[in-house]
Amino acid sequence: MDALKDRDPAHIGAYTLLARLGAGGMGQVYLARSPGGRLVAIKVIRDEITDHPEALARFRREVETVRAVRSAYTANLIDASLDTAPYWLATEYVAGPTLGKAVGERGVLPADSARRLFAALAEALASVHGYGVTHRDLKPQNVILSPQGPLLIDFGIARGAADTALTQTGLTPGTPGYTAPEVLISNQVGAAADVFALGATLAYAATGRPPFGSGPTHAVSYRVVHEDIDLAGVEPELAGLISECVAKDPAGRPGLDAVIARCAVSSALAEDPFYGRLSGDAEAVPQDLQAAVAAGLVPRGHGAPTPPVYPPTAGPGYVPTAVPAYVPMLAASAPTAAPERPRSRRTPWIVALAVAVVVGTGTAVAVRTLQDGQDGQDGQGGSEARGGGESASPSASGTAASRKVPEYIVNNKVSVDNWTLSDDPYDAAAGRGECKQVGAVSAPMELQYSATDAEDPDGGNVRQRAKISFRFKYAEMQTEKPAPYYVSVGVKPPHDIDPDTGMPYQFPSKGIGYTSKPQDIFRHWKDGRDVELVYPDDFQEHTASGKTYEAIPVANDPGDWTVVFYHVLGSPTNYESIGCHGFRVGSS
Known about the structure:
By secondary structure, the protein is an alpha+beta fold. The chain contains twelve helices and 26 strands. The relative contact order is 0.14.
């Protein structure tokens, strides 16, 4: 739990903010108090993604899912505002550590306690499935250990049976190590995928280790698809049940009722002494504004102390979940001129995660954004792009001028795109080959691209550096500059790379590799010049855990390298492939 920052509002709707609880890819979560004294967790969608239709659709779907699933194993939706920014939802606040936090601090669960937790979580999933919803992101961080039993949280990517997938091409929902193989391979999401995640979650509870190891996202995902789960040291009968739940073939996994029967529990989880110690780890939280100020969580004088207003009717588009009905009073933002306060020290008000924990694919990633392609410096990146570029004309900019584009894209997808050098000797000598691409979408204009040796463009193979060029054919014939169209280039070596040594593993690359800063492909629209980048100079890998790695030299992994062009749609994890090329690394 952290103190509010100067830029945080004092109120959201009718609720008084008391502290920050967490943050993630889609929203900021606050601890707040209702006018009647009830503690709630409020998730507010981030400003930079409020203009993105898919992000809003996901958020609205989360609200509707939490509203529909009224289970004893989930937190109830208290309130929501979906009509105008800021968009937010409020759920009941539940004290208790996450399973991930509890195991990290208290150690692994004994076999009997693990079986009781296994049965309780299976029952929780069965309850959610009874509403026609699959969770799709069950993991230790999304299980709250309340004194009454475990609760499932974070339905940001949950999906009803009749829903249309909102996942972009190639983007896998869920968290690496807990996402089922069929989801990674072909995005086949169903109840069996939740059973897989249940088994992986119990493996963590019983071992204290990531179920399929750690490392880059694509390496973990490869193990999920091809290797066995880590169950070393787990009691054999419990290990057998977990192994069945994480079977590679979804048809081979047991149903949730069979899991419950196999656990054969004879007493409630809440009565388990070990579980009682885990669930009791949450300390007291401030119950009102005065206590939050005294604890240093709310700066004195922060925001306006104006009490909430309750009009007799709700505004258009706003449907409160709880009675009495009222229209939310959206607090004004804190003055933008105020500098951000230094991060406050941790206070005695330590508490476990709130129920409305943020949406994400696993871990939060801090992202700086580019305002219309500029970051306050050169705004472009890339060797050729550093010379600057023309700004969009007023007629062309429109809403695009205010569009925010991430500074980079995250390597969080399983990519099977693969370029190979031609078998024809003549074509091979010229560096030509064929790219097998899965799930690409059509670009608005014909995309032209090339990948050659930076020092010897006619030499065929790449020896040290590759020059990658791309453009839209006939873009210069536009009478007005088109709205920005941002492209990031992903360069993937033949094999997955050990990030610490920069040397290849023995298995093929399954990630998107090293990527460039997003470039506006229309930057040179008047004369139709290419956007040019140089590998490795202009490339880095950005992982889902927030780490950044420099691109490796091509000589580290000789062979066929793949180059994929991604249209960047507004967030670091929201992009789609529009083209594929490659080059051979070798001595001749």
